[in-house]
Amino acid sequence: GVTRLSSGRSPAWSPDGQRIAFDYQRGMTAEIYVMNADGSNQTRLTSNSIRDQGPSWSPDGSKMVFYSERNAINTFELYVMDADGSNATRITNNASFGAVSADWGP
After folding, report:
1. Can you name the residues that pair with 77 across neighbouring β-strands?
2. Which segments within 27-85 are labelled E, that is strand?
3. What are the beta bridge partners of residue 2?
């Protein structure tokens, strides 16, 4: 449970305080996970051979924004996905410099 979070990065509490999203890097890949506030029910939301990092919840907890190399290695773009990891959609096109972080506003 807590072992994964201690090795994880970018922890983000859900708006209702019930879950924590975080990324976990291993080598040159990183995935986004979510778990209950008590460390139980760890679930991987992304699964690929590149880096998905920096999750941030939408104010209503239904979506997450994160940055990823899905478009090109070493070029990070922002993506939005449903809180269960489905429907990931790229929302930036910054191939010249790339996005490195994001946060939801009110």
Report:
1. 68
2. 29-36, 43-44, 52-57, 63-72, 75-82
3. none
Q: What is the tens place of the pLDDT at every residue in 42-60?
A: 999 999 888 899 999 999 9
In whole angstroms, give the CA distance from residue 101 to residue 68.
10
H or E stretch including 4? Answer: helix 2-7
CA pseudo-torsion sign 45, 48, 52, 58 = negative
Q: Return the closest-CA partner of residue 101 out of 66, 49, 75.
A: 66
Question: Of 64, 38, 40, 39, whose CA–CA distance to 52 is shortest?
Answer: 64
Report the C-alpha gap between 24 and 30 in whole angstroms: 5
Are the C-beta atoms of 95 and 73 separated by less than 8 Å? Answer: no
Q: Which residues pair with 40 in a beta bridge?
A: none
